[in-house]
């Protein structure tokens, strides 16, 4: 980490921090130094990086991982749903049990339950840790997704990737520490909130042709590299002169850092996102060229390349899981679009010796109900879908010091409420940080007069799933 060069600035920081304690002074000092410099974990880490595979819309855990015999026996019949009768459940007022679509069978030596709709995921059953009693706090997409990414359902907070970038920096100074591939339109899901702007996620799309840029405005065709470097140096001198007068300005510091890394990225990024030099066997492993999953296959392959190059947190968003109607037709398509790319990523990481210190997390923002949803009120049950269910859903993790080949947590006979092994989103966040060598209670930033953290005032590390 670079040293603070101006004694007056250092004195200002120390005086400002007076009364806030050493932790606040530490935060302010870090803001004044290079925000992406490599940081030392607080304790030995099992993982160096994270790949977050976000299944936007809410995958149906009854159909994929957690079937229930009671629901299967009661298919098409009304069940006494264990919910608060004051809750509004649009389209589920009949509470007709909806049996699993297809078979969910024990896989591998571990016996992990995985659907026939996900044969590639079934092939990595002994590599994953299946969490079957995940729990979130909101049953609407936007706030639930916001909580999964930031820990809050309403406020503008730093995203998980931004907290990790702040805690660890980047291993490659030519690349951002946090990249979001095909992100949601809600920029809060990869924003840095009140953390320095350098920690926000960089939006990346996988180019489909030579004319498409992976990052907006990355190319500068107005000047040659030498002239562009001179121009940036001139602007940066003015920025630093102004910063000396202001002494501390987090936004300006973030802009200075962003301009520098943007210039370096113009050289590093084009080669990195070009997957043409990957072997045909590797492309086939992910499903590149398969019309059902080509986009996600390229995204997962790029995630591996970025992680291998030193990016701390890579987030890949794969939508299409919001199955309110005709789930028996829609779910197989969603599985076909994501199954091979996600499983291929795990296999590729393992073959390269990267899985041990790369933590992969697969999840949606919530799950789906075990009873059917009929939006029209007149459709036959074969055309029904499922409503949102934050009370319990399934996620899986692999690598990064997580026990492979286990299932953790159980739900009731309906598949609705956790009865053991309940894992809240705050617990998941705490566990992810722990595997990176970060204490979720001490990774803080002072804002509006108090210390904020990803897990707010909650969260416990799920020690039962740690290898």
pLDDT average, as an integer? 87
Radius of gyration, CA atoms, in whole angstroms: 23 Å
Please tell me what the overall shape is: globular
The CATH topology of the largest domain turns out to be Alkaline Phosphatase, subunit A
Helix content: 25-40%
The H-and-E topology, N to C, reads as: HHEHHEEHEHHEEHHHHEHEEEEEEEEHEE
Point out poorly predicted stretches.
Answer: 1-32
Structural class: alpha/beta
Distance between the termini: 32 Å
β-strand number: 17
Number of helices: 13
Q: What fraction strand?
A: 15-25%
- Largest sheet, strands/sense/barrel: 9 strands, mixed
How many separate domains?
2
Which CATH architecture of the largest domain? 3-Layer(aba) Sandwich
Protein name: Sulfatase
Organism: Brevifollis gellanilyticus
Pfam family, one: DUF1501
InterPro entries: Alkaline_phosphatase_core_sf, DUF1501
Write up this protein.
The protein is an alpha/beta fold and 467 residues long. It folds into two domains: 1-33; 39-212 and 280-465, Alkaline Phosphatase, subunit A (3-Layer(aba) Sandwich), CATH 3.40.720. It has 13 helices and 17 strands. Strands 1, 4, 5, 6, 7, 8, 11, 12 and 15 form a nine-stranded mixed β-sheet that branches. The longest helix is centred in the last third of the chain and has 25 residues, at 327-351. It is globular. Mean pLDDT is 87; it is low at 1-32. It holds the Pfam family DUF1501.
Keywords:
2 domains; disordered N terminus; nine-stranded mixed beta sheet; Alkaline Phosphatase, subunit A; two-stranded antiparallel ribbon; 467 residues; alpha/beta
